[in-house]
Amino acid sequence: MDKFSGQKRAAVHLFPPIDPFDQRMLDVGDGHHLYVEQCGNPEGAPVIVLHGGPGGGCSPAMRRYFDPADWRIILFDQRGCGRSRPHASVRGNTTWHLVADIERIRNTLGIERWAVFGGSWGATLGLVYSETHPDRVAYLALRGVFLSMQRELDWFYGGGAGQFWPDQWARFVAMIPEEERGDLIKAYNKRLFCGDLMVETRYARAWASWENALASMESDGGGGDSPADYARAFARLENHYFLNKGFLEEDGQILRDVHRIAHIPGTIVQGRYDMICPPKSAHSLASGWSSGRLHMIRQAGHALSEAGISEELVRVMKIVGQRREKFGL
Fold this sequence. Notes:
Number of strands: 8
Order of helices and strands: HEEEEHEHEHHHHHHEHEH
Largest sheet: 8 strands, mixed
Low-confidence stretches: 1-5
Structural class: alpha/beta
Radius of gyration: 19 Å
Strand content: 15-25%
Shape: globular
CATH superfamily of the largest domain: Alpha/Beta hydrolase fold, catalytic domain
Helix content: 25-40%
CATH topology of the largest domain: Rossmann fold
Number of helices: 11
Number of domains: 2
């Protein structure tokens, strides 16, 4: 089954498409302006949606995981990607800048507490934000957990995932001279920030293609080239964050600080066959998070658009939205 068939199967579980009732560019300092939108019910339970990457940007499909009658749905493009400006910029762009941006959005919109919904890098950011501002988070919904740990980077950029996808891995590695292959993140960084737009775009597309090929269980390993602007922002930001270990204080910081969110109820939705963010991280998180519940989806990979993942996320958020008073939303 091709990826488009898989996306159609996932879409069956989503709410109908909706348009924003509010769109704005928010000045967050450091020369950055973020695209922010609100959809659904202005009086509904507020939820902030954190996209992946870093550098992936939000999409209209992300609005559709929430009943628009129950939820006030807030999406934004993180620094340097999507409709935020400047595009593909890593200046003033760290995890802690993004945590501050989320707080600025919350304050700007006059929200006391909200639900946090994020997948992949969005799960990382959601966890760091929640551990930093635990009094502001009423519910935490995570998908495809990434803890920004060295073992996860070693898996994906050190050959672990490549043992399952040797043909795609060979193409990814072949872009780099043999003497530099001991550290592919560093080697790609040199080319993604070389100052030559054509070279940067070529390597950005290779970086994005490696990840996109492994996102879904239904992938045939193809996926084609991403649009140049998207690929360049995605690859530069992701590489910048991974080279700097997510800008965390130490490896395993999220697990170290998980006690800070012990009181926050939440759900982890994890694909059993996630090749990008293997289930070990979701299991480790759930083991230390007393109020979190892990839902392992038997036949699913990493992508938000996997049918089983979409179905479970919609189910969970529908329950939370209908019981908003119970969760203090």
